[in-house]
Amino acid sequence: MTDQNTHSTRSPRQIPAWTHTVGPGWTALLDQLHRDLLTLAPDYQLDSLTTRFGSLRIHLTNRFDEAGEYDGAFVDAATALTDAAETASEHTCEHCAAPGHPRFRSDHHRTWIS
What we know:
Blueprint: H1 27-40, E1 46-52, E2 55-60, H2 72-89, E3 102-104, E4 111-113
Antiparallel strand pairs: 1-2, 3-4
Helix pairs in contact: 1-2
């Protein structure tokens, strides 16, 4: 991801700092999610970005407005975005970005998209 995608700021609590934790096939999904979240809230923060059962798991930090009130509108909008990225990752190869579906092996505790 370039500084152009991050509006020339690179926060350790935003997606660009975490992309190295997943395969290159999901970079485009994460780039788009990052741009969408920046539009929604330029100061959004990520709690975690992991993989589970062959797909992304994305958790954002809750937001509060200037008065200290929970920002439910942000959470609703951000959850829709992260859910869409997680769902897309279930059908995208983590390594090459080709369309695929989860594959499970009973002899390993691993899942992948192929």
